User: Which sequence fits this backbone?
């Protein structure tokens, strides 16, 4: 089943690095080309027979992710039965493993209740229901279920074409072409057929500079053209044989018959009356469709029968839930109360909730919880364009001054791992030699600050430096959103830096304001986080000189060069070396003080089964959320 | 004020005191104080407020990790003043790399040094570290910091999730609560009196404009207006919060002041003053204001109580002064994430309740002591 496949393009999180927190969701806007600039140049499409004949074709994987997971689970040893796991409290690594093993299984025949409803938790509302406007985590969650998709990736982040929509996928030997044949039993929720023309059309819309696409254009812009030769055959023409082409061909799809005319009349795709109506009742190409939506409160999705049954024939496995209700609750305390009272069936738990709020019978009566590593990291970002952080020694001094142990042990309840760079150390692109994390060393911090010229010249107890004839104190604002844990971490930094004569003002603010300030580079330092992309190349727009999400204005020609090389290198092990070198250079430069990896901590209703974790959490891969189910009541 | 008679309404300010028929009276304010003193509840409230003022003024000497006074390398220092403003911390301690830890460093770097320490060695902004005070363990963090009277009383009112002592936060929070009350109502009182006096005394179009402005400001829900203003403020500080509270809560004072000025401008002593050629500003300040002050003081007292509540609400909602914020409302906010930590609710909640109650009792007592109608009715 393609719940994870249909538009579950975590990879599409603009070049994969998804901003994790709500605070960062809007960071996903790559620089949008000015409307006058033409992005796509005209292209003479060669005849299909010619390209088929002239190229050697390599078959690429077309998979049914659910069937694969089922096969995998057959080999796995069950650590506990469901009955045993229901009695367990998740207070140790073995019990966590037992809970995951018992509840993570897919249903046996007729075991699942196909009439089940699930109430999911989400922290924010949708900005748009149009799949190509996808940007925030909630949009990825909802539109991943309602959108039509061709590609996905498994829990090892290996890409494949989804067997539910694709018949075959081939790549030319020179890496410049991808050829796809669609299945002929695909329909939109309004009854029209889904064809290759929808895909080619969507490419044109995404590449139209007048359309304000926030995220998905980065990736498609690496392609030369996308052409539909008939209703089922589509060919992607690449500019270069990049290792990342496999991710670039994965973009959401619009129904051509609905947008063909209106696109030219209203390129914003949201202002005209017609588009407002489409926005309110969008046509779905995935297994679910949006039924009702109450702004700021809930989004209700219903299973679409025409997804699994076409022309009276059962063509695809039915998704397990009849209805999915996204409950929008911003405050973590309120959502935990909702979980305990059974109003929602799942939510992410923060460390304090995991350690102190979910240990008693009031929680275990209806719920259980499970954890696994996730590649989501948090950091202090230093704006290198300011006089304070231009010097690498100052940035390193910040990392030495911060009390990492207190943060990890006290503030994060010992649940998070120290972060030692931009790639997770268990990922293939991380340096093979483990990087030791920074530990507080105030002497080293002071020496580095002294060397960088930040000394207490005016004898007021705080460090300063003469810049352009003026004595500038080392005092800066640390921006963060209003989550208590983040404020506490920033306050700890403030305390630590005051010990070495540096003044910090912690400024908690609305997430949207923080987004705007970081996007405009109007900050000195901020607290932020990134989720991991599926390919290391996706982090280029954070580290390349002048890149869209390079908030700290980091610039290192060697890093730029290595990213360009890594993209062109087909061999995985050679690519790994390139990215490991990037990680080392970044670690030396410390444009961020990397803080911790936030593992996945989820509370689940005891009625839920089938959750399996990936480095992107239990949902954002294939099958991901598609493997969740509830047992039929006897 | 010496010109007042006990009633305060028929006095002629230009007659010498000996000409007044009730010359034995100690004056309006003395009389009011005598009456106020006879009200036990109001007096309890008043004494409570006085105690709070004491706690606020001496907060760094009651709870802190910096010496109240110390002798170091032959000189005397008062490092605890840094709690009022961090720039007041003597630079020598950072030059000598004390890094905020005084007890061990003082003896280590100058064996001849001595220090007088605060009553409670706890910091309102950070957790006390292991062995920071010789032989004392680090503050418990997470949800383990229950109020503790057994182990020698290190955390009398417990600690919060991050290990910061609640008593220290409460003591330093008193400063914030009182400052918010006095500063914001001082500002509100000034604005209210100016607007009220101008519109009451001059009348006409000035009255019309000022009254309409007052009504417009009254129509806007204060908390909503404050939240909107806080969002605009570039760098929020506790002072800006106070300013915003002050600038939004002057309306009641303005209306009362207007009424008083309107009434008094036609009284004999004002007409006499006008006849003597006294200018309007002097009449307003010298002749009307002292007579109008008593009724205006009452809403100011109540206003202080509501300002404290507003600041607590703002801190509770996370819009208060920037962290580390030791205000009582911020403590309540911490409690929200873990209700089983009852000590984070009980102590600041009680403190807010008692303080607001005290101000209200004082306000009520003041009202009864100064308003002739109420006073006579209770006789």
Assistant:
């Amino acid at each position: 089943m393609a719940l994870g496949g249909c538009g579950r393009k975590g990879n599409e999180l603009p070049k994969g690095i998804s901003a994790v927190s709500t605070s960062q969701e809007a960071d996903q806007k790559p620089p949008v080309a000015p409307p006058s600039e033409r992005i796509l140049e005209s292209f003479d499409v060669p005849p299909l027979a010619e390209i088929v004949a002239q190229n050697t074709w390599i078959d690429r994987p077309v998979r049914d992710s659910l069937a694969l997971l089922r096969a995998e689970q057959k080999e796995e040893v069950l650590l506990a039965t469901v009955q045993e796991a229901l009695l367990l409290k998740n207070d140790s690594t073995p019990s966590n493993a037992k809970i995951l093993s018992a509840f993570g299984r897919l249903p046996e025949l007729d075991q699942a209740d196909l009439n089940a409803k699930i109430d999911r938790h989400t922290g924010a509302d949708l900005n748009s229901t149009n799949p190509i406007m996808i940007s925030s985590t909630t949009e990825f969650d909802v539109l991943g279920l309602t959108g039509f998709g061709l590609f996905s990736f498994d829990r090892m982040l290996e890409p494949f074409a989804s067997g539910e929509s694709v018949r075959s996928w081939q790549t030319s030997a020179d890496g410049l072409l991808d050829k796809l044949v669609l299945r002929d039993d695909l329909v939109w929720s309004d009854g029209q057929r889904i064809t290759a023309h929808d895909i080619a059309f969507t490419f044109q819309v995404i590449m139209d500079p007048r359309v304000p696409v926030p995220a998905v254009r980065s990736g498609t812009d690496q392609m030369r053209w996308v052409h539909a030769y008939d209703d089922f055959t589509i060919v992607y023409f690449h500019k270069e044989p990049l290792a990342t082409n496999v991710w670039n061909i994965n973009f959401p799809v619009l129904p051509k018959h609905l947008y063909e005319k209106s696109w030219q009349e209203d390129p914003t795709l949201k202002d005209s009356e017609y588009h407002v109506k489409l926005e309110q009742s969008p046509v779905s190409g995935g297994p679910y469709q949006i039924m009702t939506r109450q702004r700021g409160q809930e989004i209700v999705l219903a299973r679409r029968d025409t997804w699994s049954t076409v022309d009276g024939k059962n063509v695809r496995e039915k998704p397990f839930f009849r209805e999915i209700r996204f409950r929008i609750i911003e405050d973590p305390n309120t959502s935990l109360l909702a979980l305990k009272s059974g109003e929602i069936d799942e939510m992410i738990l923060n460390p304090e909730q995991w350690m102190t709020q979910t240990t008693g019978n009031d929680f275990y009566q209806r719920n259980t919880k499970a954890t696994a590593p996730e590649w989501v990291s948090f950091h202090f970002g230093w704006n290198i364009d300011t006089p304070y952080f231009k010097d690498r020694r100052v940035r390193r001094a910040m990392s030495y001054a911060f009390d990492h142990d207190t943060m990890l042990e006290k503030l994060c309840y010992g649940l998070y791992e120290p972060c030692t760079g931009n790639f997770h150390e268990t990922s293939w692109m991380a340096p093979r030699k483990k990087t030791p994390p920074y530990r507080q060393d105030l002497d080293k911090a002071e020496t580095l600050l002294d060397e960088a010229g930040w000394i207490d010249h005016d004898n007021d107890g705080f460090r300063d430096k003469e810049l352009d004839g003026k004595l500038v104190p080392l005092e800066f604002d640390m921006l963060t959103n209003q989550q208590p844990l983040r404020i506490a971490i920033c306050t700890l930094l403030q305390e630590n830096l005051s010990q070495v004569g540096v003044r910090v003002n912690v400024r908690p603010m609305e997430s949207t304001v923080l987004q705007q300030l970081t996007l405009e580079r109007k900050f000195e330092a901020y607290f932020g986080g990134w989720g991991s992309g599926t390919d290391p190349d996706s982090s280029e727009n954070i580290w390349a000189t002048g890149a869209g999400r390079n908030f700290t204005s980091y610039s290192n020609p060697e890093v730029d060069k290595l990213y360009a090389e890594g993209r062109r290198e087909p061999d995985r092990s050679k690519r790994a070396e390139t990215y490991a070198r990037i990680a080392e250079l970044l670690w030396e430069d410390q444009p961020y003080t990397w803080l911790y990896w936030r593992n996945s901590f989820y509370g689940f209703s005891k009625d839920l089964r089938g959750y399996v974790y990936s480095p992107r959490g239990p949902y954002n891969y294939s099958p991901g959320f598609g493997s969740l189910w509830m047992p039929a009541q006897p | 004020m010496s010109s007042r008679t006990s009633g305060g309404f028929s006095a002629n300010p230009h007659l010498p005191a000996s000409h007044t028929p009730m010359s034995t009276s100690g004056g309006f304010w003395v009389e009011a104080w005598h009456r106020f003193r006879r009200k036990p509840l109001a007096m309890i409230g008043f004494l409570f407020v006085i105690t709070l003022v004491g706690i606020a003024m001496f907060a760094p000497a009651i709870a802190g990790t910096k010496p109240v006074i110390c002798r170091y390398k032959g000189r005397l220092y008062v490092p605890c003043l840094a709690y009022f403003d961090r720039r007041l911390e003597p630079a020598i301690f950072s030059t000598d790399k004390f890094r905020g830890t005084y007890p061990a460093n003082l003896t280590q770097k100058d064996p001849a040094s001595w220090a007088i320490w605060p009553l409670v060695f706890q910091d309102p902004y950070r957790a006390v570290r292991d062995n920071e005070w010789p032989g004392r363990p680090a503050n418990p963090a997470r949800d383990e910091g229950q109020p503790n009277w057994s182990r020698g009383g290190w955390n009398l009112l417990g600690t919060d999730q991050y290990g910061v002592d609640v008593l220290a936060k409460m003591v330093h929070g008193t400063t914030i609560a009182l400052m918010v009350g006095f500063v914001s109502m001082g500002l509100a009182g000034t604005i209210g009196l100016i607007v009220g006096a101008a519109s009451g005394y001059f009348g006409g179009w000035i009255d019309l404009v000022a009254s309409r402005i007052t009504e417009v400001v009254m129509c806007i829900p204060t908390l909503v207006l404050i939240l909107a203003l806080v969002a605009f403020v570039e760098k929020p500080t506790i002072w800006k919060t106070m300013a915003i509270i002050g600038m939004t809560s002057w309306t009641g004072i303005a209306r009362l002041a207007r009424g008083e000025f309107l009434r008094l401008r036609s009284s004999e002593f004002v007409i006499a003053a006008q006849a003597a050629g006294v200018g309007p500003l002097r009449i307003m300040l010298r002749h009307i204001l002292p007579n109008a002050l008593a009724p205006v003081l009452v809403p100011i007292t109540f206003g202080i109580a509501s300002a404290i509540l507003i600041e607590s609400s703002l801190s509770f909602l996370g819009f208060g002064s920037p962290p580390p914020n030791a205000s009582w409302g911020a403590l309540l906010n911490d409690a929200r994430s873990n209700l089983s930590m009852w000590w984070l609710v009980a102590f600041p909640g009680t403190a807010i309740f008692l303080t607001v109650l005290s101000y209200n009792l004082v306000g009520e007592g003041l009202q009864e002591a100064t308003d002739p109608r109420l006073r006579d009715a209770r006789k």
Q: What stands out?
A: Chain B is about 60% helix and 5% strand. Chain B touches chain A at residues 86-87, 89-91, 93-95, 97, 99-100, 125-127, 141-143, 161-163, 231, 235-236, 318, 322-324, 333-334, 336-338, 340 (CB under 8 Å).
